[in-house]
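Structural prep section.
Before we set up the soaks we want a predicted structure of the protein with CU-O-CU linkage in place, mainly to decide which crystallisation condition to try first. Input record follows.
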Amino acid sequence: MSSLSCSWAVPVVTTTTSSPPFSRKPSIAKRTQRFHVSCNATNDDDQNAPTSSLGKFERRNLLLGLGGVYSATQLTSNPQALAAPIQPPDLSKCGPATNLNTGQQLDYNCCPPLTNRIIDYQLPKPAVMRFRPAAHLVTREYIAKYNKAVELMKALPADDPRNYTQQANIHCAYCNGAYDQVGFQDLDIQVHNCWLFFPFHRWYLYFYERILGKLIGDPTFGLPFWNWDNPKGMTIPPIFNDTKAAIYDEKRNQNHLTSIIDLGYNGKDSGNTPLQTVANNLNIMYSEMIRNVKVIEDFMGQPYRAGDAVNPGPGTSERGSHTAVHVWGGDPRQPSGENLGNFYSAGRDSLFYSHHVNVDRMWKIWRELRGTKPKDFNDKDWLNASFLFYDENAQLVRVKVSDTLSHEKMGYVFQQVDIPWLKSRPQARVQKSKVATTSGAPTAAKVKFPLTLDKIVKILVPRPKKSRKQTDKDKEEELLVIEKIEVDTTKFVKFDVFVNDEDDKIDELDKSEYVGTFAQVPHRHKGPVKVKPSIRLGLTELLEDLDVEDDDSILVTLVPRAGDVTIGGIKIIYAST
Ligand code: C2O
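Run finished without errors. Recording the tokens verbatim:
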């Protein structure tokens, strides 16, 4: 690819964290500022790149260095008819972010410093591997090293993009609506609730880790993972509870400092025994890593392309354990669940990075569990989606999703630890067929949708196919689809789904009857407000466990846990694995 380095005059955007909030995002504000662009192309084709009278798309593209898959002319003619990977943001148009828990504009500027040079990032051939240890197993020496690195990061000048606060701001800018989609100024960029979730955070951690490693001169330094999927790691790792350590953060839920994490957290403590919580956690992991994710997008999240409104739908891991950890960790004494419980502030707590290293590890494990099945989307709009980050040398780089497919190529490995949930295939509480038809619940066809989940709701859902052969089951997964989920996006919302659970043992998430969860970290964006995601939950294995493969229908129980939610429909479909 050609490389083009440009410099341009841009509206003044303050970059220090203490600066007062600025008024409006340039895309919303009246644009009186003219951009002046001058470029030095490094290959002949680009010598002729226009430098004046540029249309909106062309100018933006030029600012971005003419990378990606668009040529300037393609973009102007009809952006929506073409391949449409999410483009990196135009940093010069970064604007105010939104407090997603209140919907209010943040009184805080999380835009990164501007720079006049962007280069296309080439993954360096790793000379040595970085080692990511389990946070509860690290040595004293490691703890000292990690704290030293964070201390140095905090000591960098406030406007150095590698500074600790600047790094936290990356999450705020990409996740709280500070960036428009290039070419679609009425739409935000959002890296959650869609198929960008895993690759974006992988890049984020990648550079964060390299910056820390560079600061302590250790090319093998890897971030520790919070091993919340293993009973031995199911508390906040003790290294984060040392109040004198650089990685300590006061803004955490003080009741949870040493308690067992609840991966089914509902926003309040459950009253379950610790043993029940651990059992629930293991089955939550099993269901979101194995049972419900035979189809790629059900794990990775739904497609999200340039021009799409945000929130097409998160994968199991994102909406399940990932969300639970954020909300469980956030500090209820703070106005909006800061730090972990709100996207704009999450990156200010070092615990966030260890949480996400484990999320990243889940991606790796899920890929390994796929065996010979496709592990990645083979979709150019996913592979070519790109982001901007500052690397360990404070150079602004453009990175692509297609470079995140192998963590080894990215130069890091994880400490090997037991994965107990692999063997946690649950038992049925009751193995009984015809539960559905004798339940007296209405069939889906008779239910009036949209249906508000203001109490436990039971619905009989017919199965288009039954008594399937093993070969068919291997090829096609039977999926329960809960459609058009409408939520107040500014609230923490959660509901759980059970099948054939006659006695409503809704605190036991460790039985086959528990199918899965919908949950969201609060968020608000511009663009169409009524985005209604769907979730899909794998049934094939569960119906075997319940021994009801020959039944015509299943009885679905929806248990609201937090927030207001309405669903637009429920049905069973089949999708190839
Ligand atoms: Cu980008 Cu866990 O959030």
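Observations: The longest helix spans residues 350-369.
Flagged for discussion at group meeting.
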